[in-house]
Amino acid sequence: MTFLSPEWLSALASIVLIDLILAGDNAIVIALAARSLPTHLQKKAILWGTIGAIVVRSLMTLVVVWLLKIPGLMLAGGLGLVWIAYKLLVPGGDEEHGGGGATTFFGAMKTIIVADALMGVDNVLGVAGAAHGAFDLVVIGLLISVPIVVWGSSVVLKLVDRFPIISYLGAGVLAFTAAKMIVGEPLLKPVFDPNEIARWAVYAVVIAGVLLAGRMMARRAEAHTGAA
Q1: pLDDT top residue among 49 and 148
Q2: Domain of life, per the record (predicted)?
Q3: Dist CA 55 CA 70 (whole Å)
Q4: Cys bridge to 156: 31, 40, 163, 214, which one at CB 3.0-4.6 A?
Q5: Residue 14 lies inside a defined structural domain of this protein
């Protein structure tokens, strides 16, 4: 497509629209991942986490045709996102308990980029289709959406600080996205396409499982902190 031609501009508008629709999930991941950082690092993590996620998603778009040939990719991505949704509620390993989210700058960056890559597996397909092979359109569309994602993350972060229950709503949204990827796995099409009950059961189990497990571990961490 010729640069700035009607077709080019139309494709760019489609990509920006797709990116903006997806910005809600991105904003939630970024805000939850950064909320346990010191205040002076939160904005830095939001900015660089967004940039890193954009680079990863751009590279994924370049190899989208190859990605589609990998059996089980959507299933693996969905299961990975389930774990990240849980970790955003209750940090594990060597991270501090009690607040959820990463407690170091690079920990937050890693969470943001990995989560976005997992969520972007199916989303990248729409962007690649709208771009018709023009990588410059993909990059420009993503760059246009950056300020909106950063602004949205900042807003969500302030709301989470004021209303902690939003952390669980955000984790629920990520769990829903994970369930959507799992039931959308082509290998599982014979299981879910003819069986609507099985499809909704996966949504219920994944969302409820993440929220309940996260709440239980949060209470355990609170009890441990109180006893210390």
Answers
A1: 49
A2: Bacteria
A3: 21
A4: 31
A5: yes
Are residues 28 and 174 in contact, defined by beta-carbon separation less than 8 angstroms? yes
Amino acid at 23: A
Closest CA to 168 of 216, 96, 121, 110: 216
Examine residue 216 and state whether it is found in any structural domain, yes or no: yes
Domain range spanning residue 65? 6-227
Supply φ then ψ for residue 101, to 5 degrees: 80, 165
Task: Report if residue 134 sits inside a domain.
Answer: yes
**Tokens 């003819």 map to which residue?**
194
Q: How many CA atoms lie within 13 A of 61 on its CB side?
A: 26
Summarize pLDDT for 6-54 with one digit per residue, the tens. 777 777 777 776 666 556 666 777 777 887 788 778 888 878 877 887 7
Q: How far is CA 91 from CA 35, 88, 100, 113, in A?
A: 12, 6, 5, 17
